[in-house]
């Protein structure tokens, strides 16, 4: 009997959810370049609430044997999002930003697993950060071109990982950490399920955003 690497299992098992998220109308409209910059700003705001939840857990989980190894400072995105939002919305941006209902649910789920289930937190960590290092780069180039944001500058810093010169090598190391996740098979199955949930929570945020920024064909 052959056993698959966990990084392969989790990627394969979430593939359909990835396709769904990638093809969400809001994302398609974003990638088509037809939105005004306000839709991109509202999307960036939602990311701020998600990463705040992910990164508030970084301190408490730093020494955790399961989640701790994933918490690398070069991944942290909140400071970059703060700069992007200052650029997009002005110095007073904090007064005006609100999580959409789906964003609130997503952030709450992250906070819950961060406090109660470190391997579940890893599922959320994987879903966001490995995605940002992959398809996220497509969004950056659109944002730079369509809204005239400075290349790798304020407005798109979320997509720029200063400490990661070689994303492909970083992703290989990340997958090795997943493969070595110190939990049993049953718990790995639960992690896969949580990863699928994480994708669905992302799709729900896109649906909320789509309702705010409908585009007719
Ligand atoms: C703009 C739409 C998107 C595009 C164009 C896109 C594209 C890609 C591509 C090309 C890869 C493969 C990279 C590689 O093999 O190194 C990838 C991987 C990944 N994406 Fe996306 N993606 C998008 C949206 C998303 C979303 C919304 C999420 C979840 C929030 C996500 C999560 C992931 C994850 C976790 C991986 C890593 C899979 C693995 O190798 O284990 N992506 N994406």
Q: How would you describe this structure to a colleague?
A:
The chain has 217 residues and is mainly α. The protein has a single domain (6-212), classed as Heme oxygenase-like (Heme Oxygenase, Chain A, Up-down Bundle), CATH 1.20.910.10. 68% of the residues lie in helices and 0% in strands. It has helices spanning 6-13, 15-22, 25-32, 37-56, 58-61, 78-89, 93-96, 101-116, 118-132, 136-146, 167-179, 185-212. The longest helix is centred in the last third of the chain and has 28 residues, at 185-212. The termini are far apart. The site of protoporphyrin IX containing FE has 18 residues, from helix 2, helix 3, helix 9, helix 10 and helix 12.
Features:
217 residues, Heme Oxygenase, Chain A, mainly alpha, binds protoporphyrin IX containing FE
């Amino acid at each position: 009997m052959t056993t698959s690497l966990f990084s392969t299992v989790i990627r394969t098992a979430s593939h359909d959810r990835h396709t769904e998220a990638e093809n969400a109308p809001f994302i398609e409209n974003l990638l088509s370049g037809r939105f005004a910059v306000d839709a991109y700003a509202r999307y960036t705001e939602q990311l701020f609430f998600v990463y705040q939840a992910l990164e508030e857990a970084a301190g408490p989980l730093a020494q955790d044997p399961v989640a701790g190894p994933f918490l690398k400072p070069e991944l942290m995105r909140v400071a970059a999002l703060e700069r992007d939002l200052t650029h997009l919305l002005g110095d007073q941006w904090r007064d005006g930003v609100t999580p959409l209902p789906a964003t609130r649910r997503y952030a709450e789920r992250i906070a819950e697993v961060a406090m109660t289930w470190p391997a579940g937190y890893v599922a959320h960590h994987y879903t966001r950060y490995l995605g940002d290092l992959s398809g996220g780069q497509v969004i950056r180039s659109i944002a730079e071109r369509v809204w005239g944001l400075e290349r790798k500058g304020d407005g798109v810093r979320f997509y720029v990982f200063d400490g990661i010169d070689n994303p492909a090598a970083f992703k290989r190391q990340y997958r090795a950490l997943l493969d070595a996740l110190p939990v049993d098979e049953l718990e790995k199955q639960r992690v896969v399920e949580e990863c699928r949930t994480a994708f669905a929570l992302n799709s729900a945020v896109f649906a909320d955003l789509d309702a705010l920024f409908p585009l007719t064909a």
